[in-house]
Design goal:
Layout lengths: L6 H5 L7 H15 L8 H17 L2 H10 L24 H9 L5 H5 L8 E7 L1 H6 L1 E12 L15 E2 L8 E6 L2 E6 L8 E2 L12 E12 L8 E4 L15 E7 L5 E4 L2 E9 H6 L1 E7 L2 E7 L8 E4 L15 E8 L6 H13 L6 H15 L1
Parallel strand pairs: 1-9, 11-15
Antiparallel strand pairs: 2-7, 3-6, 4-5, 8-9, 10-11, 12-13, 14-15
Length: 374
């Protein structure tokens, strides 16, 4: 029989290692060498046994003290450390118990399965008008929700009879086959993995314990809501399992585009055409807003693409009182059809122009002249 390695060497820790250091080293090595990660690998299986045997001794203060005093052979009356029981897959309940130790488990799979579970969230999509998002609105929306059956009170059994423990899997929800390290688990087909069976199913819900019903939610969209936002109605989702809390109703809104305005956060943008004459001579114009119209003076010499900011005519901040601005971009429109009198007037204007009226044009021509003379 091969001589066993020192347990401290197996876990890669010093003999003065603390209990926490031993625990940390064991978890790391056990995860790395677990047979599930190395199927049909006898070396990994042996390594896994060795690691767990070392941990069983060093993680127990009494066994560790005895090991430190007498070594691998242990005290004579105990017949070596084999007398402590060593590591055996069966004594740990197979892989389930090992994983419980590694990942902080403790409850059985059946207990976890029957623990209270939160109900499923339900999401509905709602498309609203641009103005409804900006100013807020009240809405009603229909949705479908799975609820506990009134006939059986959610038990799934006829006349409200309670489910029984599955006789095949004994309530675990799983069928175990094999022994030692070669253990496989599969979902119990008799109960579908629930660990419970219903002998006489409810006629209304057919044993599911739930029925789908149409519900209506009434809610308020606050001013300043934006496209893509999700509003939560707590507890309006599906009921939980095993007395768990209800899920939530999530309302995702999408906002229809506006014919005139474009929105970025609390700022509104508007592109507004003005005439050549208004741009050149200046004018007072009526600018549309979501609440009506406001008068604004366009200075003379306004260029195409110029921006003007109208304070406080944007969108209210969500859950706040501050308002954004309306930014107006003017588009100077050049007439496409002119009568002869209009054309003559423009030609006359061009004749009497000195060129100083066109700053950008003059700068461009100067640069062209310099380029040609270079």
């Amino acid at each position: 029989m091969a001589k066993k390695r020192d347990y401290y060497e197996v876990l890669g820790v010093d003999k003065k290692a603390t209990a926490e250091e031993i625990k940390r080293a064991y978890r790391k090595l056990a995860k790395e060498s677990h047979p599930d990660l190395h199927p049909n690998d006898k070396t990994a299986e042996a390594r896994f046994r060795e690691i767990n045997e070392a941990n069983e001794v060093l993680s127990d203060p009494q066994k560790r003290a005895t090991y430190d005093q007498f070594g691998m052979d242990g005290p004579p009356q105990m017949g070596g450390f084999g007398g402590f029981g060593g590591f055996d897959a069966g004594s740990f309940g197979g892989f389930d118990s090992i994983f419980d130790q590694l990942f902080g488990g403790g409850a059985t799979r059946g207990q976890r399965r029957n623990a209270p579970m939160r109900g499923r969230d339900i999401q509905v999509n709602l498309r609203i008008e641009f103005e409804e998002a900006v100013f807020g609105t009240s809405k009603s929306i229909d949705f479908m929700r799975a609820e506990n059956c009134d006939t059986c009170k959610g038990t799934g059994g006829k006349d409200g009879s309670a489910p029984e423990t599955c006789s095949v899997c004994k309530g675990t929800g799983q069928i175990r086959s094999g022994s030692g390290f070669m253990v496989t688990l599969r979902t119990c087909t008799a109960c579908g993995g629930t660990g419970q069976t219903i002998k006489n199913p409810c006629d209304t819900c057919k044993g599911s314990g739930r029925v789908r019903r149409k519900r209506t939610a009434n809610f308020t969209i606050p001013p300043g809501a934006d496209d893509g936002q999700v509003f939560v109605m707590s507890g309006q989702g599906e009921p939980g399992l095993n007395n768990g809390p209800n899920g939530d109703l999530l309302i995702a809104i999408s906002v229809k585009p506006h014919k005139l305005f474009r929105r970025e956060g609390t700022t509104l943008y508007l592109e507004m055409p003005i005439s050549f004459t208004q741009a050149a001579l200046g004018a007072t114009v009526d600018i549309p807003t979501l609440k009506g119209k406001v008068s604004h003076k366009i200075p003379e010499g306004t260029q195409d693409g110029a921006l003007f900011r109208i304070r406080g005519e944007g969108v209210q901040q969500l859950h706040g009182t501050a308002r954004g601005d309306l930014v107006v971009r003017v588009k100077v429109e050049i007439p496409k059809k002119l009568n002869e009198k209009q054309k003559e007037l423009l030609r006359e204007f061009d004749k009497i122009s000195s060129g100083k009226e066109y700053e950008s044009r003059k700068g461009f021509l100067d640069k062209v002249k310099e380029l040609l003379q270079a």
